Amino acid sequence: MTTLLIIFAKEPVPGQVKTRLCPPLAPEAAACLYQSFLADILEEMRGLAGLHLALAYSPADAQAFFHNLVPAGVSLFPQEGTELGERMARAFGWGFAAGFATVLLRGSDTPDLPGSVVRQAAEALAAGQAQVVLGPSPDGGYYLVGLRSPQPDLFRGPAWSGAAVLQDTLALARRLALAAHLLPPWPDIDNLDDLASFLARPHPAPGPGWRSHLLARQLLAGGAQASRAAQQ
To answer: What CATH number labels 3-231?
Structure first.
């Protein structure tokens, strides 16, 4: 059966998403930028043949918002669990229970992640090169994880807010006798330094991340103009 790709996403409510970009962005602007992340991700991921797309949303009452956001054919289901590891494990359980042979899960902080990287993850699992695939982030976490079978124990143990999530997960994989394959590193956009690095790289339309790049520039320029006006 085709590979399932699950996107983890939050409803872009001001003050609840991308808060580490505030300031310089206002909470409303940060939420708008995060919604642009989601649009870029959905656009790029929809172009991947042989993958079924699903979106796991939070909070549980955000179904109406995401129903209007996602294209036809994208499955929707709420994230379940009290902490990130439990929510991820349950999302994988949902995918495997639906009959998919391989399941990928990616976050929504990498709007410019190319589909080719996700394709590489699917192919590594399908070819039997590994039982788990991980995409390292420079902050010590990972932007994508893929599995060939449910592995709930893989998500028990890492300190999810720490800088050793990837290394802790690799250690758990070794303990569980799971061969791991690492994808190319790719940076998240969590804080202003991350956003500056993102803006320093070209993102021409219609490539991955193009609308987020354009909007971020507009929002930052607008904030700078407002700050200058306030000082006059």
So the answer is: 3.90.550.10
